[in-house]
């Protein structure tokens, strides 16, 4: 399931890159920091990216997850500090709603 | 264009939907009850917009069918005319659920689709009322909920400008609709007399300004609520 989620996240980054002049590097995508001092997104763009990931997750797994919930934003280690952590967070959320790999 | 208009079963929403279908656009409409519009480019969703789950399902269906939206017109609304001392708490909350929170939720869901618009700019238009600037007695909860919508227009216009989405409002004087059918005629006449153009607003008066505010001709206008009839 991890690989499928990762593909969904990368597909969302690729879609975002279509509309950006300065492309987000996706060569070492798992270590890519999404938000924060070295993050690739400012807050509004992060929200837009997460919305896109939510839609793609819904299409891929037929299940709804919220990536902008209080739970997501209040974690001690932010799910937005890297793509790896975001993928891990999505996997946990999918398991909670009964989606298994 | 692909437009979504809420509250298309009757009144202003229905008139707007019929106009935009007539000029060649695709229209997605909704109401709690079945459609009263039969057109090949019209899709109707039966949904209670006070229910976030139903709202999300409706937008998911729009995404699956069209993949984008070019404009959203938040027309659906409710009112209750009563002195605030005799307005039950649940009535005030219901008015805010439909007039404000449902609008907020529709905007949130629609933004995902409006960002995929291929138009120069995409647009959200929210319906407000003269009850806001005139602070009409007996309409506290209604006018307060619409006042919140006007503030939503101002703030959201700034938050969405980076995505090329404009947010405006249209402020309506009394129109003969289901919403105003219980307001006594003398009261309506008194309100009309306050307008600079002292005749009752019709749905035909609303179509043009709505078309302007969601269309290309207003691509440099956002965060504004345009009042009809001369109410200021």
From TrEMBL, chain A:
Protein name in the entry: Carrier domain-containing protein
TrEMBL record, chain B:
GO function term, MF aspect, one: oxidoreductase activity
Name used for this protein in its record: Short-chain dehydrogenase
Claim: Oxidoreductase is one of the keywords in the record: yes
RNA-binding as UniProt keyword: no
Entries under InterPro entries matching the protein: NAD(P)-bd_dom_sf, SDR_fam
Source organism, top-level taxon: Bacteria
Similarity comment text for this entry: Belongs to the short-chain dehydrogenases/reductases (SDR) family.
UniProt keyword annotations, A-Z: Oxidoreductase
